[in-house]
């Protein structure tokens, strides 16, 4: 098995190090000081489950790597459409792409045989078909990340919690390529269940992201601060309830309690969401996949979702008026 990690940041380098430890041929594609440190010293993982160092090949040139069996995408979803030149040298006739992204993926309605929206393109995450042109639907393997990591310093990954990477085919099949990837991930010390319908995991994780990410950016508050403020906690609950209604209208029925989901977020403590971190760093906000696509699906399925629409309007304006890189 040969795997390239395109965008070997905190999550990508952690996955790559785990797979390399399992004996997989891994190629990390990154840039800057982080790349230089990985080339010189390997990837050092600091984890409550045990520290380790792995030394997979690291480069900034996909052409050095060539065709692989799998590409693990560690890029933000808004970068997919412009990643064609990086992806092209890695893609062979049967290369699969694992899109480890937050929010609604570009392939969401692909493979939903019998569903009224089967094959529908979601403009928010695939504008004008630009992502599909780079990443054809048949290459996609869905992936939902339940893992928290950060780059402590170049080449050093701090693993905070979670090791689960749920994967699944858009057409709900249990494919040999998913099974083989799962076995490799498990051999590297990760959890990697192959789900019959990974969309349920997408919505369960999205329930938290769709509420806490934009609200934290708008208020500069941490997870626990949002949960402990009675009015903002109520706002989170309203956004989650609307998200569940949209999920069910779109053909998925996540089995989770809203209060349980909020309490789980509160236990994370004084954590800044990725959207708040990006805002503070002057980076582009990842709003299209996390909330824009949800609002678009609400329109497609005729779900009112007023709270989501209002919060989306506010975070969209913030993203347009903030510095981006």
Automatic annotation (TrEMBL):
Pfam families per record: ApbA, ApbA_C
Residue stretches making up the Ketopantoate reductase C-terminal domain: 197-316
Parts of the chain that traverse the membrane: none
Domain of life: Bacteria
Domain Ketopantoate reductase N-terminal: 3-104
PANTHER family assigned to the protein according to its UniProt record, in alphabetical order: 2-DEHYDROPANTOATE 2-REDUCTASE (PTHR21708:SF45), PROBABLE 2-DEHYDROPANTOATE 2-REDUCTASE (PTHR21708)
Protein name: 2-dehydropantoate 2-reductase
Gene: apbA
